[in-house]
Amino acid sequence: MLSVPAGEASKSFAELERLLDRMLEFGLERGSQLLALGGGVVGDLAGFASAIALRGIDYLQLPTSLLAQFDSSVGGKTAVNMRAGKNLVGAFHQPRLVLADIDTLKTLPERERRAGLCRGGEARGDLRPRFLRLARAPRRLGDRRRRRRADRRDRA
Ligand SMILES: NC(=O)c1ccc[n+]([C@@H]2O[C@H](COP(=O)([O-])OP(=O)(O)OC[C@H]3O[C@@H](n4cnc5c(N)ncnc54)[C@H](O)[C@@H]3O)[C@@H](O)[C@H]2O)c1
To answer: Taking the C-alpha atoms of 131, 129, 111 and 66 in order, what is their torsion angle to the nearest 10 degrees?
Structure first.
C-alpha cells in the first residue's frame, strides 16, 4: 500500500514521481493494476500515474469522498496541478472499474460532506433553498427523520 499526504498539495509532479518510483520498486508490470482508494486527490493522482506508468496500466477507482463518488472517479479525467493552475497536466485514462462504498462516507469530515453536496448541487444547476439547507445542516446521511426535523427547524 502506498499512501500520499492528505490535501490538494499531493496532486503534484513531486508526489507523482514518488508514487511512480515506489510502484517500480514494487515490481510493476504491464499487467499490474493500481487501486486508487481515497478522495478526488488520490483518484486524480493515481489515475495519472497509471496512465503514464509503463505507457499505461489498468487502474480501479475506489472513491471514499462524496465528491469522488459521484464526480471525479467517473469519466477518466486524471491530472496533477501546476504553478499556473489546477489540473493543467494530465490524461484521459478510463478506470477499469469504479466501486463506491457509501459506508466510507460515515467517516468523512463534515466540511468535506458539505463541499461534496454543494458541488453536486452546482453540477445539477440545483441550488434551491432546500438543497442549500441540506448542505448546511449537520451530518445525517441516511437518516430521513432527523433530516425532516432539521428542515422544519430551518423553516421556523
Ligand atoms: N477527475 C475529475 O473529473 C474531477 C472532478 C472533480 C474534482 N476533481 C478533483 O478532486 C479533488 C477534490 O476531491 P475531494 O473533494 O474528494 O478532496 P480530497 O481528495 O482532498 O479529500 C478531502 C479530504 O477528505 C479526506 N477523506 C476522503 N475520504 C474520506 C473518508 N471516507 N473518511 C475520512 N476522510 C476522508 C481526504 O483525506 C482529504 O483530507 C480536486 O483535486 C479536484 O480537482 C476531479
So the answer is: 20
Residues in contact with ligand 1 by the CB-under-6-Å rule are: 6-8, 11, 38-42, 44, 64-65, 67-68, 71-72, 75, 77, 86-87, 104, 107-109, 112, 115
> What does the pLDDT profile of the chain (156 residues) look like in tens digits?
999 999 999 999 999 999 999 999 999 999 999 999 999 999 999 999 999 999 999 999 999 999 999 999 999 999 999 999 999 999 999 999 999 999 999 999 999 988 888 887 776 666 666 666 666 665 555 566 666 776 677 666
Q: Whose CA is nearest to atom 9 of ligand 1?
A: 40
Question: Which CATH fold would you assign to the domain 1-105?
Answer: Rossmann fold (3.40.50)
Is the model's pTM score more than 0.70? yes
- In the chain, which ranges are E strands? 33-38, 58-63, 77-82, 85-92, 97-98
From-to residues of CATH 3.40.50.1970 in the chain: 1-105
> Can you tell me whether residue 3 is helix, strand or coil?
coil
Residues 6+ away with beta carbon under 8 Å from 121: 127, 131, 132, 135
